[in-house]
Amino acid sequence: MKTYWRLLGFARPIGKYAVPYFFYTLLHAFFNLFNYVMIIPILDVLFGQEEMVHQVVEKPEFALTTGYLRDIINYIMYRQYGTEYNTIQVLLFLALFLITFSFFSNLFRYLGQRTMEKMKIRTLEKIRNDVFDNVLDLQVGYFTNERKGDIISKITSDVQVVQFCITNTLQVAFRDPFLILFYMLGMLVMSWQLTVFSILYLPVVALLIGFIVKKLRRKATIGQETYADMVSLIDESVNGVKIIKAYNDADTVKQKFRERNGFYSNVMWSMAKRQQLSSPTSEFLGITAMSVLLLFGGKLVMDGSLTGSEFIAYLAIFSQITRPLRSFTDAFANINQGIAAGERVMDLLDTHSVIEEVADPVRLETFGQGIEFRDVHFAYDEREVICGVDLVVEKGQTVALVGGSGGGKSTLSDLVSRFYDINSGSILIDGVDIRQYSLRSLRDNIGVVTQDTVLFNDTIEENIRMGRRDATFDEIVAAAKVANAHDFIMETENGYQTNIGDRGMKLSGGQRQRLSIARAVLKNPAILVLDEATSALDTESEKLVQQALDSLLEGRTSIVIAHRLSTVANADKIYVVEHGTIAEQGTHEELIAQKGIYYKLIQLQGMA
Asked: Which residues contact 533 (CB under 8 A, 6 or more apart)?
């Protein structure tokens, strides 16, 4: 129930929707009842004219009886036509009444449905916004442990299923109870004996249907998790389609999808069997009750306790009361399904970033001195990857981190931007621990260019503009020129307005890298982190990118991670990182003279 109330909290202010829905459904139920009550005078006119066509010259006193209905209709007819009116005029009058009641019944039904749909749409909008905002606020490490497809499924599919909690709440609270109440009231006025039977019988229907849908919530949870598995597999397969084809592994991937899709279909089939059983069950029980009522009511008609027209109207109303009752129980089943999806959504919403700001963070306005690592330790879960690192990057210096794969070079650069928080020690910028700075101001001063270039399915201009959203077009062009990107941009179909496709796949690797450099140039950061920025490029592209990087590095404080040692030979200081520690440090010439790890790496790359 806690999840249910939290989901409803997104509908605030709920009174904005509940109050008008209350009145709309109340009026719909009232006019809907009269659609069936009008059967009585119509049948009386057709088959019992002596009872219906008579003058009532004085307004009758109100009473909850069918006789009052006849008298008030005759009184209105008398006021309209005087003492002379016939059966056809009465039928015409009743037909107009019936049309009017039907019009208002359906009008208020439409207004109620519209209110409920607006509540659903706006509530789901709020949930999606909050969940997506929370996902983007999570630390980078969260996404290395979670399946991307599962996250996407929660934001899209699960949130969509949550609508059942929202829409069916008003239905359960107002619409169905009002319809049941008004129908019961009409039935009670016609025959209290038959209604007593109905009151005893209807809870039996509800209990049977409730038993059928009891296990739907658990099945719904399994279904949502399986659907997330399928989305994850689809995402991985689409992103890795080139590798799948290259290794002729499509059959294996297809089989995995068939297995997950088959399991999901079986879960949905199991749920559908239970859901669909409730409707025919209630209908069968309703017909059974109608049959019993036919015998019991027929006896009342024979005894004179009930007129034939009242009995037929009673049966018509009773046949309708099972619909809101069935809808009422179905709504509870759907609410359970919505809660199951809501629990997954709330689980994601309750996940908060472990990277938190202090209560009163300091703004890093200008970078003035340098960066210092003091006895820094860091672990992914239980595996320590940085083991007591000490290093200094002075302002204006280019510092290179080199060494074998898995040594911790990229992790050190991620720690500067606080993508992760260290376990112990401290990282200082201008003598202040970076955990004391606000995240926004810290990252405003840092630019990142990585080996895995991240571009978005948008225009070239918008991808570069990410570096600084308020930049003018001329500034974007200037940044592209510095990054050696302007010429190839102008050769594309629409220049800076060319859409580069998903992850920039319409461009070559070197072109994508130069766009990411242009983005960093536009940002104009005080601190620059280059993580293997040229390692995946061919010789020609590497040359162009390296020229762009040289322009970008000029006058900046830079941390450069590289496997190709030729790109960092001119660095002010080089740190050799091995097994999470600083194994060697010095300039290119000093490290060669030591004839240690760096010297061996130089020899392996044919530079010695």
From this structure: 449, 450, 451, 513, 517, 545, 549
d(CA 239, CA 206): 49
3-class secondary structure per residue, 326-366: HHHHHHHHHHHHHHHHHHHHHHHHCCCCCCCCCCCCECCCC
3-state secondary structure of 153: helix
Contact residues for 211 (Cβ-Cβ < 8 A; gap 6+): none
Q: How many whole angstroms separate alpha carbon 346 and alpha carbon 350? A: 6
Contacts of 68 (CB under 8 A, 6+ apart): 60, 61, 62
Number of helical (H) and strand (E) elements in the chain, helices listed first: 25, 10
What DSSP assignment string belongs to 523-572? H--SEEEEESTTTTS-HHHHHHHHHHHHHHHTTSEEEEE-S-GGGSTT-S
Phi, psi of 89 (to 5 degrees): -65, -40
User: Has residue 321 got a pLDDT over 90?
Assistant: no
Do residues 104 and 20 lie in contact, with contact meaning Cβ atoms separated by under 8 Å?
Answer: no
Q: What is the spatial distance between Cα 30 and Cα 124, in angstroms, rounded to a whole number?
A: 31
pLDDT single digits (tens) 84-143: 656 677 777 778 888 888 899 899 989 988 888 888 888 888 888 888 888 888 888 887
Whole-angstrom distance, CA of residue 234 vs CA of residue 219:
23
Helix H, strand E, coil C: the string for 224-270 is HHHHHHHHHHHHHHHHCHHHHHHCCCHHHHHHHHHHHHHHHHHHHHH
Task: Give the best-scoring range by mean pLDDT among 2-6, 527-531, 562-566.
Answer: 527-531
Three-class SS state of 100: helix
pLDDT-based confidence at residue 472 (cuts at 50, 70, 90)? very high
Mean pLDDT of 348-368: 87
Max Cα distance, the chain (Å): 125
Q: 435: which 2 tokens?
A: 């955990």
Pairing of strands 383-394, 370-380: antiparallel
* 192 within 8 A of 311, measured Cβ to Cβ: no
Please enumerate in sequence order all residues whose Cβ is within 8 A of that of 272, keeping only pairs 6 or more positions apart, or say none.
Answer: none
- Is residue 40 left, alpha or beta, with left meaning phi > 0 and alpha meaning psi from -120 to 50? alpha
